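Chapter review: from sequence to fold.
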Amino acid sequence: MLRRNVARAAGVSGMAVFAPPCRVDLKQWCEWSKNDWSKVSSVVGKSFRIPAPNENAYTMAANAALRLILNNDVDPQNVGFLGLGTESSTDNSAGAVIVRGMLDKALVELGKKPLSRHCEVPEFKHACLGGIYALKSAARFAATDGKNKQAIVVASDIAEYARGSTGEQTQGSGAVAMLVEDKPRMFSLDLAASGSGSAYRGPDFRKPVKRHFIPGYREDPDAKIADFPVFSGPYSTQCYLEETMTAVEDMLHKLDQRPSDFYNSVSALFFHRPYNMMPIQAMSFLYARGLARSTSEANKERLAALCAKAKVSVDAVRADAAPDNVTPDLFAAIETTGKPPKDMFGPTNAVAKALRAEPAFTDLLNTKMALGSETMAQFGNLYTASLPAWIAAGFEEAQQRKLPVSGHPMVIIGYGSGDAAESIPIRPVDGWETPASKIGCLKALENAMDLTHEQYDQLHAGKQETDLAAAYRGNEFLVSHTGMRNETAFQDIGVDYYKFNKAQ
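The token string follows.
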């Protein structure tokens, strides 16, 4: 068990999930694209969602937030903070206030009061970490100047990749809303023990605006201007592993915990999840480093056996994990050679691979990382909403299975390319089952409309103008039209206007 007694802190009192109806079944996608379904299903997942032409990051965020308010009987006038985490913004000026505008309109139409006029409306952007940064900020608000007020955090994103790219099967879209209070009813956040890490990594998964104006970038000039990222898979994987390691080990230092003790004591581990295998790879990497730093004879023997299987020396793995070892500068190699660096933690990654083949480690994954995992295989990559979605799916499954997790420590590990990470201990509070029963994660997946190959092609290219999923909608927000006026006295060119599609 953790030795550190943590006083009850601000945290989450409710969650809600939204997934757009248009669904791509990855087994069918493998048939279209001639990919190996057995590999895709184990490494990536089972399906992903794609937004219709009249949906965007703001409509999805508003949909999730409205569900949160209605399902948890939130008094809109008591909401003092509405934070939006996204990397799919379509406006470089406004952000969360756009979501606020939709919510106000729908709440009044439903016979309720709008959000408080004194509500803060910040937007947070740092790749896939924006939602967790927003959550930390909301918790600080709830614990300080926002005492007795409620905060709402929404993580909403659209992950889209070019056809034929290595990232195409890891697409997805959706939103997760979280209700934050100073006396949480679902789980508390131990921000005092949270670990952080950040370092500039140059071209690690970027979305530079300039790419759209560089000749040769857009293969089809008639297609929509897509938000495809600039990325390099192996380099980005190194960045993910190194930065999550930095944040987790910072947290362990604050907790005064040995890695093996901590990993064995927590009841659940939730990571940022761009695809199924990435958290597993990260956890095996972290565990291998923990073994390399351990002084127990049993762990020394286990490390030696793993090193023999991986055909690397024990000394090399220990050198990787030495506390005084200088963290490698992953970006320096690109600056000096123009090429991504080789694996900076080669010996440790070799041991981590051998570790993943061990039944004992598989048992640990099944014990600590299985909650909500099957549900997440249906969502695809949600960028900044990926980690919140996994937390939501995990708590929903725990509630449905009546698991006794109250008071048992967990940890959430967020990551944002570019790059930064956060590792935060959380703890379910007494009565967590009630708000968990209202999350609606599985229900959010029930509205699926499986796309045909042709429909997927048209939507992906931005050539589908009709709302294919109109019959699948209930109380949802949609883009009604886009402003076109560009006069001296009045301009709204490019500004989206929204409507509330009230269920009949």
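Two observations follow directly from the output. The chain has 18 helices and 15 strands. Residues 11-501 form a domain with the Peroxisomal Thiolase; Chain A, domain 1 fold (CATH 3.40.47.10).
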